[in-house]
């Protein structure tokens, strides 16, 4: 295992220490692994909380800030945070207008956020929840029942974060989150496995001449393995299942996401392939992201996310955002 | 070789096609591999041009935009762009107030930019040049005489780009560039080799239990190899040579840069180590960057850059910048 770490069991807290040192605009609790804005938003606005296992950086901690999340709860690597920590984060950021939980559809996350919501409601905090399940690759998997939540989470956190920031109420924010989840789809692939520090060896074996299509962000199995193929063929295998699943013609936001170890020169090359295929199919790419946004430790590979957009979604997308992972307009 | 590419010989132009598709605010010439702003800066301001071999993305093309570069010239992977293309870029962005060339100290780049400057001057364009040579690791190397130009280039392009944007004249911009170069130092290390697509195999062999300290951004040799060590030890081996080379006490801008295949969770962990060592030595970190800014294809590893800062440098650092690779304040 070749990693820039000290002891495997200290990776999360030592990385959070770096986040704290690098970003004075964030507050990082090294005991609970909760990241919040150093300056909370105004009283009377909905707060937005997300979280899940670590190893997907910048998701979620890197999306805390003005216009996006109020708090992120970082579990151990690929492990859901416990309900009490999600509850603590919820309580910490509530500004009297309720809190939205953004949960990726993995069994542990769904259960723990559900329990946290119940605990928070006992504290008198109104909680709304959206469960993101955008991955068209597989139905049911190692970590989840139903579709997995992957890349769309990034776009949803941005759009819903903007709605909360401008003062929309909890019902409106929840409805928007459900709309975004219904209108977005993702699909990923891996050239290599990832290596969880505590395991010390790759999660799975993928021979030097093979790739895996439909991989999950924890290295859980995808649809199938096949020999390495050109980028144009990979792009087709990612785009076609997305388009087959939902009518995405018209304006859209598209993300070409790196899995952690794939350099930008390759991500841009893949984006050119993906964009050409989407546009040929009638998708009008109104906005895009190309880079590492939801990763799987040191996995090499990429994923594609397409979100059907309307004027309202684009307006919220363009609203100012100031986070370590996404920043514009301010 | 596991990469998201089609044919190795098409990687650069196909990646540039992705840059063009993703960034309508840039103009990408797919014949000359020159990236410019779609909307040029006002007449009467100094223009800033950089470039060099590709494979270091986001450097340089990802730093074209308001507040930073006017043009970037992308050579083939790890290969200097030819003088005629640098000349064409210089001519394209000249707004009548002269052009600054930012050149990393590699023999090919220095020669080609020198020739391009002569050609541009024959066209009546005044050219100033700064050669960045911040790498304390080695004196002379496979690609260069003297010290190599590495991470400081990112900081210099931002600071000098801001000075040009606010209307400082060519003499002032050149003097600032030289000051920044004199006040900054870098040092890098690798956990793995990179693989140049055309070569199809790793540039060098680095056993599974070894790392290389003082590596260059083309995989050229560093100071020495040794067994894998904890992050705290690696941090010390990067910071100590920097501090031994220059008095960097007082305010500074610090960059913890990823080499391309190292995930953010590790970069933040390394930043915590590096920041603690620097602060103990009297460096006051006023600003920082943690992420992939000057990479070496799919190399795993990191580098540290420290730039001694004063009020003027910090003011220019904080000025608005709108590029794919760095963005804030607008």
Automatic annotation (TrEMBL), chains A, B:
Domain (DhaK): residue spans on this chain: 7-328
Keywords: Kinase, Transferase
Gene3D superfamilies reported in the protein's UniProt record: Dihydroxyacetone kinase, domain 1, Dihydroxyacetone kinase, domain 2
Keyword Kinase: yes
Domain of life: Bacteria
Gene Ontology molecular function: any one: phosphoenolpyruvate-glycerone phosphotransferase activity
EC number: 2.7.1.121
One Pfam family linked to the record: Dak1
InterPro entries: DhaK_1 (IPR012736), DhaK_dom (IPR004006), Dihydroxyacetone_Kinase (IPR050861)
PANTHER family, per the entry: TRIOKINASE/FMN CYCLASE (PTHR28629), TRIOKINASE_FMN CYCLASE (PTHR28629:SF4)
Protein name listed in UniProt: Dihydroxyacetone kinase subunit DhaK
